[in-house]
Amino acid sequence: MGLSKLNSLYREVILDHADHPRHKHDLQTSTNTITLKNPTCGDVINLSIKLDDQDQIADIGFSGDGCTISQSSASMMTDAVMGKDKETALRMAKTFSDMVMGTEHPQADLDELGDAAILSSIMSFPARIKCATLAWWALQRALLEEDAPTDEEEA
Amino acid sequence: MVAKNLDVRQDFPILDQKVNDEQLVYLDNAATAQRPTAVTDSLVHFYQTDNANVHRGVHTLAERATEDYENARRKVQKFINAAEPEEVIFTKGTTDGLNLVASTYGEANIQAGDEIVISIMEHHSNLIPWQQLAIKKHATLKYIGLTADGELDMADAAAKITDKTKIVAIAHASNVMGVINPLAELAKLAHQHGAIIVGDGAQAAPHVPVDVQALDVDFYAFSGHKMMGPTGIGALYGKRALLEAMPPYQYGGEMIDFVHQQDSTWAQLPYKFEAGTQNIAGAVGLGTAVDYLTSVGMTNVEAHEQAIVDYLLPKLVADPDLEVYGPHDPAKHTGVIAFNVKGIHPHDIATALDMEGVAVRAGHHCAQPLMTYLGLVATARASFYLYNTQQDADRLLVALAETKEFFNHGAVKA
Asked: For the NIF system FeS cluster assembly NifU N-terminal domain, which residue ranges apply (chain A) (predicted)?
């Protein structure tokens, strides 16, 4: 029975984030914004972030259109990085990309991702990895591009 | 109507496999078709028996390879009923053929203020070459729109094609809307205004009989891989007079007549447009695919797909949760069926169907202006070919029902 396998991808928490996305709105004022597209499918994410004086994510919001996985991932990402400082958020983005590509990570790193860690199941659906990573790429790009001159992050 | 099967499945070993523990149902034929054993065998035979470079050796293998290659050209010529083999140029595929026309004929004939007319349902490969040519030449690119049921709006075509029009480029069959466009009628319209017409045959040549002389198209491009030939091979038909007047596409070996230090003269047709060593084995494989299609009979291929559409389309259209694009009248719809399921993103549909062994495409189908025109981001698409059966259509229907159940109720019983 083929569809029962879907349960491992479309877990309840993933469907819940997709049906009731957190932070799905554009910010009135923001310090970092980006629009990213997945050209293979046409999915779009607009991400806006408000960093405070301490480089902490004071607010974050997204809009756009996409599949269950991309919408759910964006919702979980915004939940996970809200309140985190920029450096931590970038580390989490790296952890997430590594995780979905199957690279081992200490449990503490995965715990830091919150609900988003559940998307490790995407590994069994290689065609959908891009759907899951789009939001995290957007986060990375938004945080790195605004202050490229003082960029001190690893590539 | 019950779709009578063509009894060809044993020729396609790839179809006899399980995907995600389910028997594979391959419904992504508009992206690429599967190859019959005859085609893969012909590639192996060519490489193991006749392989050599063509047209430039005096030895026996070179002669055999040349004969195989030119035989393939004659097969393609007959397949589309071109007047002579020199009017058939081997290309990498439809994209390559359309780019060839845009960058040779287009480059030589389009001037500032001229108009190029395409349709809003074009694939990017029959859109971007004209768009970029128009930008470069300060010409205007105009789009023919669609009727309410998703057919090409011929009244709009009559309005858009004017005496300023120099090139009309239209898909013979749409890779999204599932319609066959009236290419002969459009050719007449283009010619009345002194324009030439380019047919994009990528979705038509594999599925319906094509007669380029009856259509009276000036150019016609198609791909081998969508008609069960190898990837990386296709053909461009062009009327001799036009091809002869056109500058070459690429320069190099094989396409020259004589090379001096400061200038060169070009080879005769079709070699003027076949610079460098061509995809010889690919051409041979395409020739075999043509033989295969001819032995089945293109009218039988067309009738078989039509019978599946007659069976399936009304069931899809009747489902209130489904939105089916293009005409809802099966008689006007090809075996390319784009659809959406309310509340479920096409990517999620495609993943769910894949878990049921049913391979469909999801996305914008390389037709972003069409998606925007229809107010869509993406669709799912099931596309049928001669080896698909009514049972395949049933599998799609069952898998769709289960997909809806899954997403509407969170999970299915294991």
From this structure: 10-131
